[in-house]
Amino acid sequence: MDKFIEQVSLYIQEAPVWPFTLLGFILVVGVAVDIINRRRRTAAVEYFDLAFQEELTGLYPAATRWPDDLAAYMQPRLPILRDAFEVLRNFIPQNQLREYNAAWNRFYQFSRTGGNEQPVSLEDAAQELAVNQSDLQQQQAFQQMISDLLAFATQFKK
Q: What's this model's pTM, rounded to 2 decimal places?
């Protein structure tokens, strides 16, 4: 064992210093990038949560002030929520990105139309007349969509 330690110490004394310096520099840069990315991700999650809390006050988590026309109420709020969505999307893992985009598209479409999607064909028009959501069902669907979106941010809060 002493011979092994002696060989290693002789190698370190004889070896050039630049590979060790380069390795140390790469490690320091890697740790710095990781710290910066963690801070950016934390800021994105906080912005996402704050945007949804502020813009949807009275609608989520409990619908205390449900508007008569959801589409008109959400129209000025959607760009702010879209920005928060875009900021957080940079940190969503690739295997969850499709579900995240689909959850946003459902929420955006529901908010843009007020929960009343326009029929595309005569069959859709007949189905829409047959199935008419009440305000309570709209509120529950809206709150579920928001919960689905916020679930993506909670994975980073651990």
A: 0.75
Q: How is residue 36 written in tokens?
A: 């910066």
Furthest-apart CA pair in the chain: how many Å?
A: 88
Q: Which long-range contacts (CB under 8 A, 24 or more apart) does 88-96 make?
A: 88/44, 88/45, 88/47, 88/48, 88/152, 88/153, 90/44, 91/40, 91/41, 91/44, 91/45, 91/156, 92/152, 96/152
Report pLDDT digits (tens) over 65-79. 888 888 899 999 999
Amino acid (one-letter) located at 132: N
Helix (H) or strand (E) run with residue 10 in it: helix 2-14
DSSP characters over 51-79: HHHHHTTTTSSS-SS--S-HHHHHTTTHH
Residue 132 and residue 113: Cα distance in Å, rounded? Answer: 14
